[in-house]
Structures are given as structure tokens and as C-alpha cells.
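Researcher: Here's the sequence for the chain we discussed earlier.
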Amino acid sequence: MATLGQRVGWFFNSPSAGPGDRPRGGMSPRALAGARARLTRDEGFGGGIYESLWGVAVRPDREVDWRALNLDDRTLDRIGTADLVQTMADLSPEVSGALWHFIRFCNPGWEARALRPGTEIVDKIGQMRLDEFLKVLGERYGAVDVVWNMFFSAAFLRGAFFGELVGDERGRLPVDLVAVDPHAAEFRVREDEVLGRVWQLGQTHNGKFKALDAPTVRYVPVDPVPGKPPYGRSLVTPAIFSSLFLLSLLHDLRRVVAQQGYPRLDLEVKLAELMQAIPDDSAGDPTKEREWVEEVVAEVAKMYGQLEPDDAYVHTDVVKVNRPVGAVDASSLGAVDSLIRAIERMAIRGLKTMPLLMGSNEAVSETHANRQWEIHVAGIKALQHLAEQLIEHLLTTALQMQGLRAVVEFRFAELRASEQLRDAQTEAMRIENAKGKYLAGWISQEEAAQEVTGHAADRSEPRVIDIVGGNDIVNLGLNDGEDRGRPEDWQRKLLVEMQEAREQLESVIENE
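Model: Thanks. This is the structure I predict for it:
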């Protein structure tokens, strides 16, 4: 049975901390003062000869890499999966296009507010410190959106959000917010007295596992497998095969078109007539005859190859110029289009995108296109929520470093799932439905207002409701907005008066 002191320690400290480890998960950010400012490490540092000798990173040359990176069997055997995914983002049009759309849709804009705990009131001091830190990030990276885009790029390629808030040496001032490559994260099993077997986040450096339990480090996986290490699922991995297949197919088609796609002239050397002009010293010797014929053919080829476009080809009757032959027509490559479309459909499904965004179904109807867009936006919003929670935690920790209790609320701008025209049409139908229910006596004015607008009506009765083909129902109160008790009282009184007037009119007609 655990004592009260042990339970309090479990609450404030990391559940996975061992007896000899210093608990860091429940520590305040200021308690990290004096340690290494940044805890995580990136895999990319120290990997190249230029970095080792001069500390200069090699600039990626996208214009040259696409020519040099011919992914043959030997290359695929040597390259790692993470490097292959990164390479495909530069080589494959499908992967590159999906990544472009994903990042732009995930970050259409954002808003960060520092609120008082448990309220919607903006903390002025906290907001000022938050804006100052965001300004520091903007100066460091050129724009704050660069950091958010790196988070989404990592989620797409690696399947997780991995970030760290870096403080100064005193642990009292945030200086950076780093997007770490999730491929560098590792997990090990730890035994906890309460939770049992748990997964502990860390990194292996120089053969030693270093736990990352500090509140300044956050790892959020995308759709991890239950009961397994909480590594996320990469969004692009299922599309690697289809994208590679499509690239290899296009390379093969390029060679076919280069060899057979253009008409080639056919020069024919008449051997029977040529043998009549063979020199006497070569006649009768098969070896000399063959050598002499080959020399004549080579001379004809050389002469024709040196012709300018406006030169005339003058030749003897032993050489015959036939019509161009060897071109591949449309019937020979007719099946390629359907094959490419089938592979593209596989790539689209693997990339979690829609044919509408990849230009794969230009003739789709507007209704079908709207459904595709709504499905895609739903997936984007789901990943935005994960990123918002990670960024909120790190920015809130940045304020706690400075001794502030404000809580950061971070929200990305709303990505519209439908255009304004459809929204207006939907709202008009909702208004008509609520008005019909009100006129039929099924709901009250307050219920109709809540159904359409979500808040109470400003009047107890409608001002004017126009009924096509009938009289207008207007507010008959003496004063504007006057309450008349039950809504149907004035209608009942009017009906009684009309009935009495009708009876009087009928009696007058009968008396006459």
C-alpha cells in the first residue's frame, strides 16, 4: 500500500521515473535551470563531411537531385525508409503535391491568446509576454508559420508531432520553440508501481538512452497502435509503392518514346547491285567482300549524318531512301493511360487525399466534389486539433517559465468545408422550416429562434411574416414589441369578430 507522500509524489512527478532518476515530468520549467538548454537532438547534424570538417550544412539542390536520384534496385536496398520518404517528397509529383496541399490546408492562419485560468478573459501581461515570444520566433525563423509548417510536415512524413521549448540557462526565459524530427524519438519500457508497464520517451545518444520527461518536450503521435510503442503512423508510407511504380513506369515510357516515338528514315543499300561494282582484288574473297560492303554502308551513314537541313542527298542507284518507319502510334500506347490512372488512384488513397485535389477526375459533378472536399477537410481538422494541443502546452510552459499563470489558447483559422453560397442556401431552408413549424403551432417563437440562430429572439412575436397567397401575419400590438400574453389570443379575437360580422351580414340579407 502506497503512502500518502508517495501518491503525492506520483501526482507531481513523472509516472515512469525510476528510483535513481531525477523526476522531471512534474517539475516546473524553472527547475531545469543549469542543465543543457535543449534536451532533444536532431539526426541530421554531424552526418556529412562538410559538417564534420567545417560545420557547414550541405545545401540540398532540388534541381540536380531529381536527375541524380535514379531509384534503382541497389539504391532502394541501401536507402532507409525515412530517407526514402523524404526523397519521394522531392521526386514524386503525387507525394509532393499531397504534402503541399496538406501543409497549406492545415495552416490557413492562426490565433494565440493568453487567458486567465478557467475563464475567457485575456490576461494582458500574459498576452504581452506571449506576443514577445512569438516575435522572437518570427525573427529566428523568418516567420512563426515556418515552425507550425514544420510540425505538419513532420506529421505527414513521420506520423507524429514532436516539439521542444528551449529556455535560457536560468530557465526563466523561453528562447526557442523547436520542431524535432519524430524519427529521432525512441521509447523504452519502464515499470511503474501504479501504472505497470509504461512507455518512456527518449533518445539514444552515444549508445545510451536519455529520457525526455521534461515538461518542455512534447510528443504527439498520429493514430498509434494500442499496446505497442506509441510511434505514429506516417501518412505517406502506404503511397510509396504506387508512387515508385508510377515513377519507374514513366521512366520506361520515356525510353520507349525516345527510341520509337519519332519517325526514322530508312536507308536501304542494294547489295546485289553493289556487288557488281566490287573491286577485282576483293572479288571472290568473302572476308574482303564483307569489309568492302561495311565500308560502303559506313560511308553512306556518315554522309547522311553530315547533311544540313537544307542540303540535298545525292546518291547512286545502289542506295534507296524509303519512307520513315518505326514510330509508335497511339494504338500502341493506348493501354498506358488506363494503367496510369489505376496507379494514381492507389496513390491518392495512400496519401489520404482526394481525386479533386490531385486533378484525377475533372468531370466530377459539383455535388460529388463538395463531398470530397468535406471529407478532406474533416481529416485536416482532426490533425489540427493534435497540433493545437501540442502548441498550447509548449506556449503555456513558456509563460510559466516567466512566472505567469496564464493559459494559452491556440486555434488555427477555420478551414471552410463548404462555400458561402451553400451555407446561405442551407440557412434559408432552415429559416423556412422553422417558420413553417411556427405557423403550424408546433414550436414557439423562442424555439424557432434557438433552432435557426442559436440564441433567444429579441421580440416575443414576429415583426412580419409574409405568406405567399395569403394575408400577412403582423404584430397587432398597440406599441412596438408589446407583449399580448398568449400568442393565439389576438387571432382568436379576430376570428370571433369576423364570425360576428358574417352573422350580422347574413341576417341583413335574409331580412331583405
